User: Fold this.
Amino acid sequence: MIEKIKVFGDHYEMGLEYGRILKQRIKKMMENLADMGMIKAMRPKIVPKKWFLNTLKKDTEKLMKNDILKYYPRQWESLKGIADGAGIENSMIILMISLEASGFSLGGCTSLGLPSQMTVEGEPVLARNFDFPIEFTEYQVVIESRPKDGYGSLGCSIIPSHGILDGLNEYGLAVACNFAYSLDKPTCIVPLSITLQEMLENCRSVDEAIDFLKACKRGGYGAIITIMDTNANIKVIELSSHNYSVREDGTTIVTNHYITEKMQKIEIPKQAIYSKKAPKELWGKRVHESSEKRYIRVEQLLKTYNKVQENDIIRILKDHGEEDQPSDSTICRHTPYHNTIRSTIIYPKKRILKATFGNPCKTEYQQFSF
Assistant:
């Protein structure tokens, strides 16, 4: 059973309540941090865990604090509130949210944007599988935020972040963020969940959201973001720290590789493989292989439908390939490291989000609304 957390007030007050509610889970994650896969992969074996974590915490705060404070001051107030509510230092919150931007965590995601003419009910749908290191499965939440000075939002986060990577706001603007592999060197380090939270609090339509993302300060990694509104507008923006390209595909399929020629020029090469600096489970694997295979599989499945209904969307999200063998390259992803840890279906017109934590082939979706 997924619990929805609901917070009201100014950004500090919302963060404070969020931190209080999730205090025990945030502290559990903090206690386990040194043994989590991406931290272990970064730590030299001869370096003690406690010393390494303390050094990493200080370095991460130097990299991120000023950027968040300068470009997203309201979100910074939320982070301060979360730290105070959970009773831990702010620098530890920053370290924990920085894991979103770790190159080792950018493992997957499959998104599908369906225009109203493609659905039996005649309304647009945005669906997404979120693939991430499996150890984060227990640290997910559904959060509804009602800020005093912004639009309300409803979506999914990984604690201790309050930022949404898949969700919608009170005006029916919906978003799904897939990670990508850009070679751009960032001059600003801010997790995209923070950027997208700010977008949902300030934008009502796809066009407003696209303009926001073109102009905003963003950094740390590449992304491919699907945006939809109640007028059935659907656009995809491929992003890096300093570049972007907008796709208007109608029915949109997004995995983790860029489609536009402009962005492919600044992407990790197609034949790149994970080195031994990555978690052991990834050694020697081609970075883009899973993304390419999942993209092709969604295309194949969509061709079998004239129009789709919710059961068809779920069938796609649960798919294990032609041979029905779950793997690293199936839409419903099963691996020792990058796994489908969340699946969501969003209805912008109804202001409804359906979510399941864990592989969608194993769990049932729950419905949430404003």
